[in-house]
Amino acid sequence: MALLTPDQISAADDRRWEDVDVPEWGGTVRIASMSGTDRNDYQKKMLVLGSNGRPQGVDLADQYARLLSKCLVGEDFRRLYLTDRQVAELGKKNSAVLERLAKVAKRVSGLGEDALEDAAGKSEPTPSEPSTTG
User: Fold this and answer.
1) pLDDT at residue 114, rounded to an integer
2) Where are the domains of the chain?
3) Which long-range contacts (CB under 8 A, 24 or more apart) does 1-6 make?
4) Quick one: CA dihedral 115, 42, 96, 14, positive or negative?
5) Among residues 27, 48, 81, 128, which is most buried (max CB within 10 A)?
6) CA–CA separation, 77 vs 91, rounded Å?
7) What single string gives the DSSP state of each residue in 75-96?
8) 15 with 30: CB under 8 angstroms?
């Protein structure tokens, strides 16, 4: 297989999504995977930095609403929740529904439970693999 060029990588549609029925809300929502930029922003906003600038903990306030604001999209794949005020309103919805949808958002985005610990620098380093370049 030939190596990809930057243009080919940019042109590839690698989005993942699931349409999820939400009977409590009377319809269906589309949950799409986060871009790398959106994922980094989501994780950054959850980190609590100490006076030394290093991560000291994780801010879990409105965690599901913040995650879903990056993943809930319309048919055109444009995000539905863009402002802090909209995210706060989403956070007022039934917590069981938000948690159920957040599980889907994590799955389609490849966001594991340990991702925030990794971002906060609390996980063990992974041994590096030897280079295959010569």
Assistant:
1) 57
2) 17-119
3) none
4) negative
5) 81
6) 21
7) TT--BS--SHHHHHHHHTS-HH
8) no
Do 46 and 59 touch, CB atoms closer than 8 A?
Answer: yes
Architecture of the domain spanning 17-119: 2-Layer Sandwich (3.30)
Quote the pTM value: 0.77
Phi, psi of 32 (to 5 degrees): -110, 155
**95 pLDDT above the threshold of 60:** yes
> Distance (Å, rounded) from C-alpha 63 to C-alpha 61?
5
Angle at 78 between CA 75 and CA 83, to 5 degrees: 135
For residue range 19-45, list pLDDT tens digits in order: 999 999 999 999 999 999 999 999 888
Burial of residue 2 (CB within 10 Å: 0-12, 13-18, 19+) is: exposed
Residue keyed to tokens 């889907």: 104
For the chain, give the mean pLDDT.
87
Distance in angstroms (rounded) separating the CA atoms of residues 59 and 115: 14
